[in-house]
Amino acid sequence: MKKFFIHTAAAIGALLGFGCSGISTESISAVSPFNINSYLGVWYEQARLPHSFEEGLINTKATYRWGRNGQIEVINEGIDEKTGRKKITKGVAETYKGSDRGELKVSFFRPFYGKYRIIYLDENYKKAIVTSSTNNYLWILSRERKLLEKELNMLVMLAAEYGFDTESLIFPQK
Q1: How many structural domains comprise the chain?
Q2: Taking the mean position of all CA atoms in its chain, how far away is CA 45?
Q3: Which of 57, 121, 127, 152 could make an SS bond with 78 (beta carbons 3.0 to 4.6 A apart)?
Q4: pLDDT tens digits, residue range 87-139?
Q5: Which residue range forms the structural domain that includes residue 19?
Q6: What percent of the chain is helix, strand and coil (3-state, nearest 5)?
């Protein structure tokens, strides 16, 4: 139980940007135009920067779907590499009203919301690069469980061009 509260506090701090020494990502434009309905569904995490709320997780994925009250349900799943147990975290997301940009407000611990900024999205909504409000957070996502090496390398190079520390990336798909 104590570990849960520590992870919860860390996640809240990360989402709100408290104590972050990272550089703001506001200078990197979120994708536009953006269609939330095309974005919904399952996304497999191909690479991420390390952070406490996914520490030790492999085979990670996120599912986005319409929920009650017009909110988007977010279900993050992964396998704890040490124990083999599945871990699931549920949250909600909302689009910014009147915006056609790939930006969402995401909360796993309401009422606290953090930024979810899609800075790259291919035209078929099959591959994405996502960040938060600082360059400490980066996820490379795909509709496929495992990308071809050349596709993943292209996305990693693009993330490096955006200024992210790609040398520290974790590749969770085993």
Answers
A1: 1
A2: 8
A3: 57
A4: 999 999 999 888 899 999 999 988 888 999 999 999 999 999 999 988 899 99
A5: 2-168
A6: 25, 40, 40
